[in-house]
Amino acid sequence: MDRQQHARLDELLRDPYPLYARARRAEGLTYVPELRAWLVARDADVREVLRRPDVFSSANAVRGDVVPSQAALAVLGEGIAVRRPVVITADGPAHQRLREPIVRGLTPARVAAVLPYVAERAEALADAFAAPGSGRTVDVMEAYALRLPGQVIGHVLGFDPADVPLMVRGGHSTEQLLFRPLPEEGQLAAAHDVIALQRLLDGYVRDRHAAPRPDLCSEIVTSLVPDDGDPEDGEGDPEDGGAEPELTLGQRGELIAHLQNFLLAGHLTTTALIGTTLLHLLRHPAQWKLLCEEPERIPAAIEEAARYDTALQGFRRVTTRAVTLAGTELPPGAEVLVGFGAAGRDEGRYERPDVFDIMRVPVARHVAFGLGAHACPGAQLAREQLRLTLELFTRRFPGLRLARDGPPVRMRPTLIHRAPEALYVEW
């Protein structure tokens, strides 16, 4: 993809909603060359795809827009190769097996147990950016949204808090390397961050395999040790006095990949959802005022924000056989982009879908967190972080508004974690 093509793609990704509207009005599906996929934009069609994982495989769920440079690929080559899919790209029984420990680790009871920690960290972050002498204008993305979800996911996994900044940086660098046309220097820096994250996760994988703890990292490691039949890949001796055999290099690589996938889904998406929700509430001061006066409306505001401008705009799918969708005949191997963000603005399902309205009644069930076999298992944890954030901000900063002298808000050019690049606010 050349520079001009990337410029067109950037423009489309910063505001995909006009494209979504055209695609919903068109007969059948719309092929989008910039995305190299058929766009599934109507709510009913999105639901059909998500309910038929046997026909619409997740094998290509996330595919990068950028091929890293040879120098960056050389750095990435220093990492541990992965041969099997992770939960987001698996289908059928393999997907169920990979998903089960995550579901067990994010049950309602376990989410409830972590909420006091979420509330404590949220208050501490607010204390830091609102401290006397720190000024009354802040980029709330940098000071809050980019920090809280990473700290929460690190806590759930059982990571040392000192490792969380590297974990967060590595996640963002992974996304940039795959989806942003970075200069050579930026690619190399991102690649080194990815390798640093892999090495960090490798340490946790080996530690939890040797001595499991009551945390989600242990749950994932002990449940998902793959059957690695390559004896030359091993490092330990299973006959060594009955001790637990060491993980092979291949096993370690796959467990690292599972943890990396969980981290990206767990903190980047929630960061984006916090940013977009605050953005749209502050763009509608009357609704922000109403939320401050009536905080019981916060759950409805969360659902409206997710419907109106969801963080995860869409995932890819590939057809496993010939199929007709919305009147369009798709051959085997056809790529489709399942537009969660497009479905949220479907005129056939919602009244005034392009209007942000936290008083929308009733709030129709949206697909912002997916549907069916691949529905987001962390949806409740994300909602709870946003709920606690809004309760905190409406209580402590009722005068919050977009900074009058701040730069114009620009959305990040991605469909994976749509959010403001920066969000300057004052109070």
Report a brief summary of the structure.
By secondary structure, the chain is an alpha+beta fold. It has helices at residues 3-14, 17-25, 43-50, 70-76, 92-105, 108-129, 140-145, 148-157, 164-179, 184-210, 216-223, 249-282, 285-293, 298-308, 340-343, 379-396; strands spanning 30-32, 37-40, 56-57, 137-139, 314-319, 323-325, 328-330, 335-339, 401-402, 424-426.
Provide structural commentary.
Residues 227-243 have a biased composition (Acidic residues). Keywords: Heme, Iron, Metal-binding, Monooxygenase, Oxidoreductase. Pfam families: p450. Belongs to the cytochrome P450 family. Helices cover 50% and strands 8% of the residues. The protein has helices at residues 3-14, 17-25, 43-50, 70-76, 92-105, 108-129, 140-145, 148-157, 164-179, 184-210, 216-223, 249-282, 285-293, 298-308, 340-343, 379-396; strands at 30-32, 37-40, 56-57, 137-139, 314-319, 323-325, 328-330, 335-339, 401-402, 424-426. It has a single domain, classed as Cytochrome p450, CATH 1.10.630.10. The longest helix has 34 residues, at 249-282. By secondary structure, the protein is an alpha+beta fold. The protein has 16 helices and 10 strands. α5 packs antiparallel against α11 (216-223), α6 runs antiparallel to α8 and α12 (249-282) runs parallel beside α16.
